[in-house]
Protein backbone atom coordinates (compact mmCIF):
# COMPACT_ATOMS: atom_id res chain seq x y z
CA UNK A 1 0.00 0.00 0.00
CA UNK A 2 1.30 3.38 -1.02
CA UNK A 3 1.66 5.99 1.58
CA UNK A 4 -0.02 9.24 0.83
CA UNK A 5 2.09 12.35 1.51
CA UNK A 6 0.88 14.50 4.29
CA UNK A 7 -0.17 17.88 2.83
CA UNK A 8 0.75 19.86 5.96
CA UNK A 9 4.25 18.30 5.96
CA UNK A 10 4.77 19.19 2.29
CA UNK A 11 3.67 22.77 2.86
CA UNK A 12 6.07 23.17 5.77
CA UNK A 13 8.96 21.79 3.71
CA UNK A 14 8.18 24.12 0.81
CA UNK A 15 8.00 27.14 3.15
CA UNK A 16 11.35 26.23 4.74
CA UNK A 17 12.90 25.81 1.28
CA UNK A 18 11.65 29.23 0.18
CA UNK A 19 12.97 30.78 3.39
CA UNK A 20 16.45 29.31 2.90
CA UNK A 21 16.54 30.25 -0.80
CA UNK A 22 15.57 33.82 0.07
CA UNK A 23 18.11 33.95 2.90
CA UNK A 24 20.86 32.50 0.67
CA UNK A 25 20.31 34.90 -2.23
CA UNK A 26 20.08 37.84 0.16
CA UNK A 27 23.40 36.83 1.76
CA UNK A 28 25.11 36.52 -1.60
CA UNK A 29 23.79 39.91 -2.72
CA UNK A 30 24.88 41.53 0.54
CA UNK A 31 28.33 39.97 0.28
CA UNK A 32 28.68 41.27 -3.29
CA UNK A 33 27.76 44.79 -2.19
CA UNK A 34 30.24 44.68 0.70
CA UNK A 35 33.05 43.47 -1.58
CA UNK A 36 32.24 46.10 -4.22
CA UNK A 37 32.21 48.91 -1.67
CA UNK A 38 35.28 47.80 0.28
CA UNK A 39 37.60 47.27 -2.69
CA UNK A 40 38.87 50.25 -4.60
CA UNK A 41 40.18 50.13 -8.14
CA UNK A 42 43.41 51.97 -8.86
CA UNK A 43 43.76 52.93 -12.51
CA UNK A 44 47.30 52.74 -13.86
CA UNK A 45 46.57 55.43 -16.42
CA UNK A 46 45.14 57.90 -13.90
CA UNK A 47 46.47 61.42 -14.36
CA UNK A 48 48.94 62.53 -11.73
CA UNK A 49 49.35 66.18 -10.80
CA UNK A 50 52.12 67.93 -12.70
CA UNK A 51 55.13 69.06 -10.68
CA UNK A 52 55.23 72.75 -9.87
CA UNK A 53 57.97 74.36 -11.93
CA UNK A 54 58.61 78.04 -11.81
CA UNK A 55 58.93 80.08 -14.98
CA UNK A 56 59.47 83.81 -15.36
CA UNK A 57 56.16 85.54 -16.14
CA UNK A 58 57.34 86.88 -19.50
CA UNK A 59 58.94 83.60 -20.63
CA UNK A 60 57.27 81.94 -23.62
CA UNK A 61 56.51 78.35 -22.66
CA UNK A 62 56.48 75.49 -25.15
CA UNK A 63 53.00 74.08 -25.49
CA UNK A 64 52.52 70.32 -25.40
CA UNK A 65 50.74 70.32 -28.76
CA UNK A 66 53.53 72.12 -30.57
CA UNK A 67 56.05 69.74 -28.99
CA UNK A 68 54.09 66.73 -30.17
CA UNK A 69 53.13 67.94 -33.64
CA UNK A 70 56.08 70.15 -34.57
CA UNK A 71 59.25 69.12 -36.38
CA UNK A 72 61.80 66.96 -34.61
CA UNK A 73 64.37 69.73 -34.25
CA UNK A 74 63.33 73.23 -33.26
CA UNK A 75 65.36 76.25 -32.33
CA UNK A 76 65.41 77.10 -28.65
CA UNK A 77 63.12 79.98 -27.66
CA UNK A 78 64.55 83.46 -27.18
CA UNK A 79 64.58 83.17 -23.38
CA UNK A 80 66.98 80.50 -22.16
CA UNK A 81 65.58 80.27 -18.62
CA UNK A 82 62.29 78.54 -19.39
CA UNK A 83 62.19 76.25 -16.38
CA UNK A 84 63.65 76.59 -12.94
CA UNK A 85 63.28 74.23 -10.04
CA UNK A 86 65.00 71.39 -8.26
CA UNK A 87 66.83 68.55 -9.95
CA UNK A 88 67.22 65.12 -8.39
CA UNK A 89 69.11 62.08 -9.63
CA UNK A 90 68.58 58.34 -9.88
CA UNK A 91 70.73 55.29 -10.54
CA UNK A 92 71.64 52.11 -8.69
CA UNK A 93 68.60 49.82 -8.65
CA UNK A 94 67.28 51.31 -11.92
CA UNK A 95 70.51 50.62 -13.83
CA UNK A 96 69.84 48.21 -16.70
CA UNK A 97 66.04 48.43 -16.44
CA UNK A 98 63.91 49.57 -19.37
CA UNK A 99 62.95 53.24 -19.43
CA UNK A 100 59.64 54.63 -20.65
CA UNK A 101 61.20 55.22 -24.07
CA UNK A 102 62.02 51.51 -24.36
CA UNK A 103 65.79 51.73 -24.06
CA UNK A 104 67.80 50.41 -21.15
CA UNK A 105 68.75 52.89 -18.44
CA UNK A 106 72.49 53.45 -18.07
CA UNK A 107 73.30 55.44 -14.94
CA UNK A 108 76.68 56.39 -16.46
CA UNK A 109 75.11 57.96 -19.58
CA UNK A 110 74.07 61.59 -19.85
CA UNK A 111 70.32 60.99 -19.71
CA UNK A 112 67.35 62.28 -17.72
CA UNK A 113 63.71 61.76 -16.83
CA UNK A 114 61.24 64.57 -17.56
CA UNK A 115 57.44 64.48 -17.10
CA UNK A 116 56.48 66.11 -20.42
CA UNK A 117 59.33 66.69 -22.89
CA UNK A 118 59.36 64.29 -25.87
CA UNK A 119 61.83 61.41 -25.80
CA UNK A 120 65.13 62.26 -27.45
CA UNK A 121 64.94 65.95 -26.52
CA UNK A 122 68.25 67.48 -25.51
CA UNK A 123 68.30 69.79 -22.52
CA UNK A 124 71.07 71.85 -20.95
CA UNK A 125 70.83 71.68 -17.16
CA UNK A 126 72.62 74.43 -15.25
CA UNK A 127 73.28 74.00 -11.52
CA UNK A 128 72.48 77.44 -10.10
CA UNK A 129 74.53 76.79 -6.96
CA UNK A 130 77.87 76.34 -8.77
CA UNK A 131 77.10 77.31 -12.42
CA UNK A 132 78.17 73.90 -13.75
CA UNK A 133 76.17 72.68 -16.73
CA UNK A 134 75.57 69.45 -18.58
CA UNK A 135 73.61 68.45 -21.71
CA UNK A 136 71.32 65.45 -21.25
CA UNK A 137 68.93 63.49 -23.48
CA UNK A 138 65.40 62.73 -22.24
CA UNK A 139 64.90 58.94 -22.18
CA UNK A 140 62.48 58.39 -19.32
CA UNK A 141 59.14 59.62 -18.09
CA UNK A 142 57.83 59.76 -14.55
CA UNK A 143 56.17 61.65 -11.77
CA UNK A 144 58.44 64.15 -10.02
CA UNK A 145 57.81 65.51 -6.56
CA UNK A 146 56.54 69.07 -6.16
CA UNK A 147 59.15 71.65 -7.14
CA UNK A 148 61.31 69.21 -9.08
CA UNK A 149 61.66 69.74 -12.80
CA UNK A 150 64.02 66.95 -13.88
CA UNK A 151 65.50 63.67 -12.64
CA UNK A 152 69.09 63.17 -13.85
CA UNK A 153 71.20 60.06 -14.31
CA UNK A 154 74.01 59.50 -11.81
CA UNK A 155 76.67 60.61 -14.33
CA UNK A 156 74.89 63.88 -15.08
CA UNK A 157 74.41 64.55 -11.36
CA UNK A 158 78.11 63.87 -10.78
CA UNK A 159 79.10 66.43 -13.45
CA UNK A 160 76.86 68.97 -11.72
CA UNK A 161 78.41 68.11 -8.31
CA UNK A 162 75.06 67.30 -6.72
CA UNK A 163 75.28 63.57 -5.90
CA UNK A 164 75.96 64.06 -2.19
CA UNK A 165 73.20 66.62 -1.65
CA UNK A 166 70.75 64.69 -3.84
CA UNK A 167 68.98 67.86 -4.95
CA UNK A 168 70.15 71.07 -6.62
CA UNK A 169 68.48 74.24 -7.86
CA UNK A 170 68.68 74.19 -11.66
CA UNK A 171 67.67 76.02 -14.81
CA UNK A 172 66.68 74.04 -17.90
CA UNK A 173 67.36 75.14 -21.48
CA UNK A 174 65.62 73.06 -24.14
CA UNK A 175 68.13 72.72 -26.99
CA UNK A 176 66.08 70.48 -29.28
CA UNK A 177 62.86 68.51 -29.16
CA UNK A 178 62.97 64.80 -29.87
CA UNK A 179 60.43 62.40 -31.29
CA UNK A 180 56.92 62.51 -29.92
CA UNK A 181 56.37 58.73 -29.97
CA UNK A 182 57.97 56.78 -27.11
CA UNK A 183 58.62 53.44 -28.79
CA UNK A 184 59.54 52.57 -32.35
Overview of this structure, please?
With 184 residues, the chain is α/β, with parallel strands linked by helices. The protein contains three helices and six strands. It is rod-shaped.
- The best one-word shape is rod-shaped
Q: Report mean pLDDT, rounded to a whole number.
A: 74
User: How can the largest sheet be summarized?
Assistant: 6 strands, mixed, barrel
Amount of beta strand: 15-25%
Give the class from helix and strand content and strand pairing: alpha/beta
CATH architecture of the largest domain: Beta Barrel
CATH superfamily (homologous) name of the largest domain: RlpA-like domain
What low-confidence regions span 5 or more consecutive residues with pLDDT below 50? Answer: 42-46, 55-61, 63-71, 73-81
Instruction: Kindly report how far apart the N and C termini lie.
Output: 86 Å
How large, in whole angstroms, is the Cα Rg?
A: 30 Å
- The SSE string, one letter per element, is HHEEEEEHE
What attributes does this structure have?
184 residues; alpha/beta; 22% strand; rod-shaped; Barwin-like endoglucanases
Summary?
Helix content is 24%, strand content 22%. The protein is of the alpha/beta class. The protein has a six-stranded mixed β-barrel with strand order 1-5-2-4-3-6.
Amino acid sequence: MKRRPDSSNTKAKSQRLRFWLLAGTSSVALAAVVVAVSTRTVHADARLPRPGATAPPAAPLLSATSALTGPREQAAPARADLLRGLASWYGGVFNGRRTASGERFDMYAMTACHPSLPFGSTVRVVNLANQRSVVVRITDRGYLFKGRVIDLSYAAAQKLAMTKAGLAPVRLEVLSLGESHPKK
